[in-house]
Design goal:
3% strand; 179 residues; mainly alpha; two-stranded antiparallel sheet
Amino acid sequence: MKQRMILVITACSLLLLASCSDKEEIAEELIQYNNEVWVPINKMKETELNDLESMQQELESAGKIEEAALLVENEIVPVMDEVLDQLESADTANKEVDEWNDMQIEAEELAKDYMEESVDYYESDEWSVVDHFFNTEELKAKYIDVADYRDELIDTYELEYVKGHEGLGNFRDLKRAEE
């Protein structure tokens, strides 16, 4: 009887230690993915696309539809392809990090589809303002889902933003929470 009790206690202890080490591994991968993959990709995307999207809107407003379509096809979509390539090549080992990456890929694919549809809009009169509004809302919802999942992971694995990165918006490095 004592041997069984010792065996049960030992097994429970090993399971507890294994689950703690898994949580530690996942937390480390989350930090690494965030700091070395997600933040740099999003900063690059923001830096490269902000000016291009402003130019696109200016061209639209000026009625230079052909130039706007060329800008999207030749400059904006290639940046979006680079973002997708980097996300798709990210090496993820844990299901939580993999899910986060997959959600981001899904959002980026929708953003790219939306941009490519804008070229169709320039070439025809079929696309309406209502379609544009719904596409924008769907895209916003995808990005919000990614941010919500990231926040959930931060809470679950007791992580926090690195102080001093406040000016970077949501694209901040993570570290373990200080106790």
